[in-house]
Amino acid sequence: MDEHKISIEELYKRTDSSEHGLTSKEADERLYKNGLNVLETKKKGYILLKFLKQFTDFFTSILLIGSILTFVADKISPGEGYNYIAWALFTVVWLNAIFTFIQERQSEKIMESFKKMLPEEVDVLRDGKRQRIDASYLIPGDVIFLQEGEKIPADARLISHNAMRVDHSSLTGESEPQLRKLSCTHDNILESRNMLFSGTLVQSGDGKAIVYATAMNTQIGKIADLTRQTKSVETPLHKEIKNFSRIITILSLSFGFFFFIISYMLGNPLIGSFIFAIGVIVANVPEGLMPLVTLSLSIAAKKMAKKNALIKNLESVETLGSTTVICTDKTGTLTENRMGVNTLIINLEEKNVDEKGIEKLKDFNILLKTMVLCNNSRYDTKKQKYLGDPTDISLVGFAGQYLNTQKLVDKEQRIAESPFDSRKRRMITINKQGNKKIAYIKGAPEVVIQECDRVLINGKIRKITTKDRKIIDTYQIRLASRGERVMGFAFKKTKSDRAKEKDFIFIGLAGLFDPPRKEVPEAIKKCKTAGIRVIMVTGDYGLTAEAVARKVGLVEENATIITGEQLDKMNDKKLKTFLKRDDIIFARTNPIQKLRIVKVLQSMGEIVTVTGDGVNDAPALKNADMGVAMGISGTEVAREASEMVLMDDNFATIVNAVEEGRTVFANIKKFICYVLTSNVPELYPFITYALLKIPLPLTVILMLSIDLGTDLLPAIGLGTEKSESDIMNKKPRSKDEKLLTKPLLIMAYVIMGTIQAAAGFASYFFVLHQGGWVWGQQLAITDPLYMKAITAFFASIVICQVANVLICRTRTRSVFEAGLFKNKVVLLGITAELFILANIIYNPYVNQFFGTHPLSLIELSIAVPFALLIFFGDELIKLLARKGNVFVQKYLSW
Questions:
Q1: Are the beta carbons of 37 and 214 closer than 8 angstroms?
Q2: Threshold 0.85, pTM exceeds
Q3: Active site includes 473?
Q4: Looking at 142, 155, 167, 329, which residue is catalytic?
Q5: Exposure pattern of 10-31 as b/e (b: 16+ CB <10 Å)?
């Protein structure tokens, strides 16, 4: 990693090349040895094998096995409706596999986005001639030619150049195009001016360079490799669905095995007992769960898209609701990314830029000239705006209010430049003013003042004193503490084309302010109320970061500021101690340090959401529980590595998305309770059929019409339910909180499910009794009385589910308080549910398909009291929970 420090002759030797480049023969031999200049992705593998892998998932495997067993049951005992449920299970399995496969394929686009950063062709010196070749054939030792507007195809060192500037923003996040030099200017290879890096852009000028690294050996290749090796974190929701699937599967198989043994012991044949066990298992498997989860997440994602939050991985919607820590950038996320000059320190006095008569100050013009001439922003005539570093743009924009900036630049042309970098933290230009040469310096105040031996006050130049330096230092601290970015300005006459960094005349300071977004303080307040810690991780200075943090309410007293330099000297144990604090700010950090902060937080058990915009943010975005990329300022790589993209780059949008994420988890629990409740009255018919020797009260096809028919639309309605009023007043859900809790199982299986089963049996036996049936009498499946009885059982479940979907809309509030008719989708679902029920009961063509029979109004109304008991019984439970009843809160409040 010393290619920037060694002599160019030594680099020629290291790459076995020369200023004349390579011959075609040498290039071909090296290409065979080194491989193509392309960024590697994960091994392709066969798409078919990747797709088949989706069927190895636990829940998918159970559904697939259930489908196969049900096909077998249909072959053994045709005409019982098993073929319908087999095909339904098979369809659900395939839909789930396709959905998961698509999600996994999305992650591969991360690597493809890296590839897009490389050019397709490049000019190279081969056989002593300049020729155009495919950039993938480039190898170490090649001499390449680069021009304005071209992407750099590999890591290289400059041999010669003509006013060449390179935009490194895609690699380092540094927004200002950097002027190149032939000599080493920094110990850090990324900051040395004599180097060029793959994937960056030649902003202006041209040059010639020797390639020393290609493909995955380049800087961007190393980032790509780090991103590739960084494992995506499994979403909390995915973990919960797996846990839910495991519990339901164990319950289903246990019930199936138990009743298989019971059935066989009661004298039923082995095959009959096997088919019976399959029915029991199918009755307990919520076939519609995965489609419901997917639809619920899709609905939430659409809602979030309307609020400028684009979700790429649907399961990540819920991750936001689990978030305990948000690591956020400052510029553009907490602030408007609209830098403007706010304060001037001129004549050693503080002036607000809006003060009247400020332009009449004697030294005002020389300050403006320094702002314009010591500046690398450029005016784009097509876009009719300045492009470049935000600080430079704001300075030239401010000066443009008082003078013609373009005319000034044309008149006093630049002769030489010593560009800004993170080590020197200043920029110097030498401009021709008639027959004179003037040097201008702009940069960090402490750097600028160090190079000054005189000061300009009211048009007079005098020697700078210790007192003057203290006054300037006081102003600098004052401005920075207000959140202003402070820049110092100075000038001097010179005879040389290379200005020495001394003997400058101090002019003044400018405080630039990027105002916080108006909606951010309220968003921060919401986070604190919701138990979510917000940690600022910024590349900006500590004082500026602290001032912004205080303005938005992130910190109240003095903040604990840790710089990137301090972070590097700190071990993980000490870092964990600081990360427990609420007033922590990380300043002057780089993306690798951001990744470390994320990993340490995760090791502490935190669910971390992190924001980023650059290529080098990709590893942190991918490693975070929830990666959030900037849609406006973010790079393509950052957007691909994240799960969510902020279309407005606004922190408040993240908080809105957190609320939506919490709502999603709550709604998934609601429709799980709703769906599981109907599993109980589907199970009891098989139990009574085996134990009591009565005709089977519910056929498989009717059971399927509940799971994938009448239950589906109301459940989708629950997925659209608005958040309860206190959802952002609660702490993030614990990692130990499950979708399937003991209270939920008690409510679904023991209380509400049993009431529904009782309603079904009441209707079933009422119809049988009215028809003259006697105990022990067997009925053919074509017997009108049997068809009528199973129709009554089915209708009772549907009627009770209408009450059930209404109570599942809230968990603490009364349904009346929430608005009984406010959720239009639930009402539509109930309408569809009753429409399906009416068709199954009264449509003669549908009767033939389902084996059902019309019911009288009395037979249909038997279930109504049970439905009312479910509705008002739950209202009583909620009331007791709100009153603080310990038993209810512990065992019934799910």
A1: yes
A2: no
A3: no
A4: 329
A5: ebbeebebeeebbeeebbeebb
